[in-house]
Amino acid sequence: MSTEDNAPTPDQFAGQPDAWQRLWTPHRMVYIGGENKPRDTTTQQCPFCRIPSGQDEDGLVVYRGAHVYAVLNLYPYNAGHLMVVPYQHVSLYSDISPEVVTDMGIVTQQAMTALARTMNPAGFNIGMNQGEAGGAGIAAHLHQHIVPRWVGDANFFPIIGQTKAIPSLLADTRHQLATAWPTP
User: Where is the active site (predicted)?
Assistant: First the structure.
């Protein structure tokens, strides 16, 4: 098949049909390419090292512990997406002391309690991406994600519409979580 001027039609370029369906997401190349990602993550330029020196409201800090702090993710997967971050500028979980490991665990439990009190999630995703190849957005500074989840919250809206629906402002969420944070 071809058009009147003998130019091939688009279906002639598609190759052999296969069983795969494809969902094209070219907007993800911005993330893959690292746009707006800090390149210099030494302690002076690392956002996780700078945040604790500012005001909690400005840095979206929800809680400060002895060795770690809890902060809202500036680019959340879901409303209430928190991170537990050690004050120490270290990249791997295996490089932190037992005291920091303990504090991370306690603050993670406290974060789950605060999220349950304010947002009533049905579950949580908790994890760390370590190293650039492991998916860490800021690989030079260890951080653990705590993402509240609700049944049916995963859909194609972010992919197709290139939009993530976050139903509350980060400043409001920070205030709610800080107020609901359990006393140690």
Answer: 143
Q: What is the spatial distance between Cα 107 and Cα 85, in angstroms, rounded to a whole number?
A: 10
The tens digit of pLDDT for each residue in 128-171 reads: 998 888 888 888 899 999 999 988 776 555 555 556 667 678 88
What phi and psi values does residue 51 have, to the nearest 5 degrees? Answer: -55, -50
pTM of the model: 0.74
Name the strands in the sheet holding 123-127, side by side, starting at the edge strand that comes first in the sequence: 61-64, 68-72, 82-86, 144-149, 123-127
What architecture does CATH give domain 24-180? 2-Layer Sandwich (3.30)
Output the known binding site: 73, 145
27 noted as active-site residue: no
Query: What is the DSSP code (8-state) at residue 151?
Result: T
Q: Please identify which of the residues 27, 67, 143, 175 carries the catalytic annotation.
A: 143
What residues does each domain of the chain span? 24-180
Tell me the two tokens of residue 14. Answer: 């598609």
Give the span between the Cα atoms of 133 and 118, in whole angstroms: 34
What residues form the annotated binding site for substrate? Answer: 73, 145
- With beta carbons less than 8 A apart as the criterion, state whether 174 and 62 touch: yes
pLDDT digits (tens, 9 = 90+) for 82-105: 999 999 999 999 999 999 999 999
Residue 147 φ then ψ, to 5°: -115, 115
CA–CA dist 113, 182 (Å, integer): 7
